[in-house]
Design a protein that fits this description.
Length: about 290
Amino acid sequence: MNVEEYIVARLNALMHTNDAEIVKRLEGGMSNYTYVVESQGKKYTYRVPGKFAEKFVDRDDELLNLREIDQLGLSNVTTYVEVRSGEKLAEYVEGTIMSETDVVSYNQMSVAALKKIHSSKVHFKDYNAFGRLDDDERYCRETGFSHPDEYLALRHKLDEMRRTHAAVPQVPCHCDYQPTNLVIQGEKLFVLDWEFAGMNDPFYDIACYGNAGFDKALSLLDAYLGRKANKEELQRLYFHRAFQCLQWYNVAIFKDRVGLSKDLNMDFNQVALMFLGMAKDLIENYENL
């Protein structure tokens, strides 16, 4: 039974029907299998995590996050979560994925959603960014990988930058606020995929916009502040984006080392090198601000 057949069988069981069908697979992410499915005339998304996804996501935390964010009215309705496997069924949101737009045209809509999250009373666990990075590095070492000197030098600089920005107050954050996780439906913006949510520096969410190009993050920062960012604010943004690039470097290295480059027909080693180069540029720009 392949993954599509499995999802159809699971949906039929959950809905107590036999009419479930696959509509399409959603692109995005580096390993999950997420499909738009339909049953009884209604569309849903069904997620089956890829191999080793459990190393990077705590599903108990994800379930707590989903319960917390219900009060914000920003996400779609989750119908079913299986903590053990990480499988999730949620109502499908019809609309335009932000990454399929020019992004900056929707800055004000995005800022409104961010400020609703950041000023809310929801409570998440500490995102623990550097603890996550330490874990990611360890996963790589456990495959026999040795981090190159270039990476170690960048990590050292990142640790120094961390001390500079340590006093920033922590607020509820999505922590994966990239345009692929945002869906525009008329005048409403849906914020999806809350598995990484945690208490964090609000600029971390803005830095995630860098996945669509760092210029998008810079533009969003000014919109969020309502003015041009000053040097300290720009450094915070560069710091968080550099961190994210080093984190994704480790995730990509791990995926390559465990054979997912072949399984998913994606050269994760090249993905890792891309993120390493981006981190280097960001840290250099941070130092030259």
